[in-house]
Amino acid sequence: MWVMIGEILFWLVVFGVTAGMLFMNVFTLILYSDLEADHINPVELCERVNGLVLPEYLGQLAVAAMLLMRGFWLAALLNVPILYWNGRRWLDGKHLLDNTSIFTYLPVAKRHSRVKLGFFLMMFFFYLYRQVECVVRAGMRWDTCGCAREGN
Amino acid sequence: MQPPRPNGHAYGEAASPRGTDRVAGRPPWPGPQAQGAAAGYAPGSAIPSAARPGAAYGAAGYTAAAPSPPPRYPGGGAAPRAHHGAPPPGWASAGAPAHAPPPQSMMAGAAALDTSTLPRPELDAHSVLHRVALGDPVPVAAAFGAPDVNAYGGAYGAAVLPGIPPGWQPRVNLCTYDPSWCCPWELLRPCEPHFMSMTVCAFPASAAVRAKYGLPLAAVVRPLAPPPPPSLLGDQTDEAVPVVNFGAAGVIRCRRCRTYINFAVIITDGGRRWRCNVCQLLNDIPPEYYAPLDANGRRIDIQQRPELCCGSVEFVAPSEYMVRPPQPPVYVFVLDVSYAAVASGALVTAVESVRDCLNVLPRDGRTRVGVLTFSTQVTYYALPAGEAGEPRIVVVPDVDDVFLPSPEDVLVNLDDARPAVDRLLGKLLQLHPPASSSSSSSFAPSAVEAATQGGALGSAIAGAFYLMQHWGGKMVVVAASRPTMGMDKLRDRDDVHAFFTERECRLLLPEDGQYKRRAVDFTRAQVSVDLYLTPPAGAYVDVASLSSLAKYTGGEFLHLSGFDASRDGPRLRRALVRNLSRETGFEAVFRLRASNGVRCARFHGRFFTRSTDLLALPNVDADKTYVVEMGYEESQVLGKHLCAQSALLYTTSGGERRIRVHTVVLPITSSPHDLFRSADVNATVNVLAHQLIEHCVHRKPESARRAVVDRVVDMLVKYRQLLGSAAASSTQLLLPDALRCLPLYTLGMVRSAVLSRDAAMVAAMRTDCKAALLQALDNGGVSTLMAFAYPNCVRLEDGQGLPASMGALQGQGLVLIDNGFEVLVWVARDVAPSLLTALVSDDVARVMLAQPAPTHPPPPKLLGEVLLSLPLEPESDRGVRMRRLVHAVLAARTDAAPSVSIVRQDTPAEARVHAMMVEDHGASELGYAEFLATVQRQVQQRLMGGSSTAGR
Fold it and tell me: How does it sit in the membrane (chain A) (predicted)?
């Protein structure tokens, strides 16, 4: 029983973290379009976007680590490309936006953000599915248990 | 039927029958008048559409017989390309290549080796001096006066426009005119190209048309450009930019797109409204600005309205254009008093230059001045006002946490505290006498310590910023070492082995964001940093990191490596005096507006980009050039004309807010031919050089070289495709007339010290020098970067130009060689002693002519400074005329502050000259003829590869 609840909680956490990253990405994209419309200045934009980089990378790492520890190989594998990409950016020192060259880099940054958005969206539904599946399975077992008890 | 032949110049005889008959009976290189005739498309004469102007250069034959085979290619067979990592395809197989030129052109190769027929900029005396001052003369008239009126919205020719004199010739920035504009033809004064010019004088109507052109689409703007030196261009009267004050009406601008009113707007409704030529919105004219229209539909006061007649105007901005009251001119001098700076004499030079310049700083009672010195600690100087003001020293020993002791006395009104400032500058020299510190360092252990420790440059800059952050203004920093203590330390990341590897480009970028961040903070406080670095020989100062301070705050940057006051002092002094004495604008913003559908894609220059089309410039002056690359927002640009308007809003040193507006109107065309015909090679080279900087800091040199060459190959392929079947079979190199020298300029850029191993070796380039050269390039104006792409060689005697080739220089006596960032006077082996004596003084000439040569000849730069210090009167003197020419060249290079040296033939210093001769063979570099041949081969390969892909 507790195993089931643990699993549901696990997926809930994974799902929540992914939703958070998804939200951060949407927020970043909104900021980019604000910058293009001149509603925000590049210095502020870079401060805000750069503030989101570390949480996102950590969240990504945490999700992957959790999946790996629970032995969900497929889900962990899906996370590998973006982890690799994040790692490369970090090692190259390119993970932060530079407010002096942001306008040159903006099209690229937007594209990156969109690709990541797509990825997170996919993972979001994937985790959602796993969570619902988990809940349904737990419910079924609960039902069978309950039925059995009632039957007794 | 004879295929229509490219109507242009054909170089290289017998490569094809078409080539021969063009060349016959004509001088190999047509002079300016011959060129116009040869091009032969004056307005009115119809040209069949296929027979577009082009120049056919029979380069295919050059490879077969290399001129006097250089030692590196024994036997003329397969050429070993040892460490030249970017062999152009097919080059190595010169003997038996896959794309061998046909036999008859190989035969012709021998004849074509006469390299004097290759395309070059005009080299007569007038053209060369024009080139020095303003870049190549661009004959838009010949290149663009197209007879097919439809391409320009029917705006051409006397028949179409009754108001235009019949002999009207379009020129740069005035390729089109429309009678509906508010300005009558006779009064129109277009924007001068040295203020603003576009890379093409016609604008492609859509991204698809633009893609068939292949070269950048950009505006090169030098908003406050000085008038070109009159000594170079004769008595060309350059009219000042008119200043317009709208008074109560306020600055007249479009309501929607904020475009300033200009000569190309349409005034309607009896003078009550005007139609914006950028967004087509109909705007009301305020009653204060109203004037009725005359019978021709012109405003009756049009003669008194320069803003409606001139391409360049300056508006007086009312208080709506101020966020705060106009700032006073603020100057803070940050001087290095460390051992290295004192010993090399940099401090003395700096202090004396500043002292001389105090008189030329704006003197209207508002100017504020502060002085800071630093070594291992930061020192402020309190400067009390009044006659008896005695400067007080305030030391901040803790360089990790700089604070401002007493703000009110440190940044003082220059007029009030002038005696104290003068005393302080005298005292600085007493406190740090160059003699004592250089004589015996054992008596000054602290000085030795400082020499090894470097200084607290970062802390000093931070301290100076605290001083001026509420004012804004100019921070002039003279420093001899890298910040090694205190705030914003930089480590020694120099790596000699990184030279020409992938690691090098990392070294050319700022190490860490710290100085960038600081620069952005400074920009927001309207503080600009002018950085003069005077490191001792061999010291690494991390130019790449420090220069971001100047780059993002719109400041000046000069790196004098191995500084020695006797040799480099005058140059530093020239640069400082120029910086402090030229007109400086404060708290400026720059914006470029263009018609609907066009947007600004990228910017180059020294600024901070504040929004998609707005550049923030804490300081702006006459020596700053900005490049705006344009792109398409929509797939198509509608209308007949494109209007590009640059606006610079700034505070003059007199405390007035001004808007400098340059407006350029281009015809919109859907024919790529027009783009090739109307290209402005000066602006194009400028943009390509700016793109080269980005290549250099993001790729390794070999791939940067490839990218630069690919660009021109790409353009030539597109041109060939455009010419269609007529040219497809030609083995000649077909060059558009307006861009006939572009391959030469590309070769020059590839062979410059930033990309060529040869040239860099000769110039003893280190990472610092390279980073500094890139910074200088970033700020280069049109003529400077033209000289960078192809050095100007001028015979001093008569101003005659020479090709950049050692062969051409032989026996020419005294030749001035100017590559934009360095000016050399080359003295031939067999120079007439009287000529040399006339140029330099008697004793110097004796030293130079001494036989045998002295074991320690005076350094070339020292001789150059001696030359500059000689008198410039009377004019009748032959030597004076030559010296005036040197000074005039220097006056055209205020944006680069070049060094001047005298180099004698057959001395080791001459290697620098050899490296500049871009037409000659280098140890690992192609000569001009060979380069053209490889370009031609790459074009052929692309065309063959392209035809198969095009069939898909």
Answer: Multi-pass membrane protein
pLDDT digits (tens, 9 = 90+) for B422-449: 999 999 999 888 754 444 444 444 444 4
What's the rounded Cα separation, in Å, for the pair B746 and B711?
9
Give the residue extent of every domain in chain A.
2-144
Q: Summarize pLDDT for B311-350 with one digit per residue, the tens.
A: 999 999 998 898 889 999 999 999 999 888 998 999 999 9
Average pLDDT over residues B530-544: 91
d(CA B646, CA B822): 31
B28 and A CB contact within 8 Å:
no
Asked if A98 and B610 come within 8 Å (Cβ–Cβ), the reply is no
Contacts of residue B788, defined as CB under 8 A and 6 or more positions apart, other chains included, come to B689, B748, B749, B752, B777, B780, B819, B820, B821
Nearest residue of A to residue B516 by CA position?
A: A100
Contact with chain B for residue A100, Cβ under 8 A = yes
Decide if pLDDT at B149 tops 60.
Answer: no
- Residue in A100, A101, A102, A105 to test binding to B, most B beta-carbons within 10 Å: A100
Residue of B582, B368, B565, B363 whose CA lies nearest to B478 = B565
Which pair of structure tokens corresponds to residue B299? 């405003």
B383 and B409 Cβ atoms separated by less than 8 Å: yes
For residue B158, what are its two tokens? Answer: 């006397």
Q: What are the structure tokens assigned to B703, written together?
A: 């791939």
- ipTM of this model? 0.84
B552 residue type, one letter: Y
Chain A hits for B612, Cβ within 8 Å: 35-36, 38, 103
| B611 with A98: Cβ contact below 8 A | no
Q: Note whether B519 contacts A98, CB cutoff 8 Å.
A: no
Minimum distance, in Å, between the CA of residue A51 and any CA atom of chain B:
16
User: Is B641:B668 a contact under the CB 8 Å cutoff?
Assistant: yes
The two three-digit tokens of residue B385, written as one number = 């006002």
Task: Kindly determine whether residue A43 and residue B602, on different chains, have CB atoms separated by under 8 Å.
Answer: no
State the Rg of chain B over Cα.
29
Q: Are strands B608-611 and B614-621 parallel, antiparallel or unpaired?
A: antiparallel
Residue entry with tokens 């039902």: A143
CA pseudo-torsion sign B766, B769, B773, B774: positive
Q: Which two tokens stand for residue B19?
A: 């080539």
In B346-467, the DSSP E strands lie at 368-374, 378-382, 392-396, 412-413
Cβ-based neighbour number of residue B530 at 10 Å = 25
The predicted model scores a pTM of 0.85
What are the phi and psi torsion angles at B742 (to 5°)? -60, -40
pLDDT of residue B50: 34
Q: Do B520 and A36 touch (CB under 8 A)?
A: no
CB contacts under 8 A, B 597-626 vs A, are 602-603, 608-612, 614
For chain A, the residue count is 152
Q: CA-CA distances (angstroms) from residue B874 to A39, B231, B751, B816?
A: 62, 15, 40, 21
- Residues 6+ positions from B574 with CB-CB distance below 8 Å: B890, B897
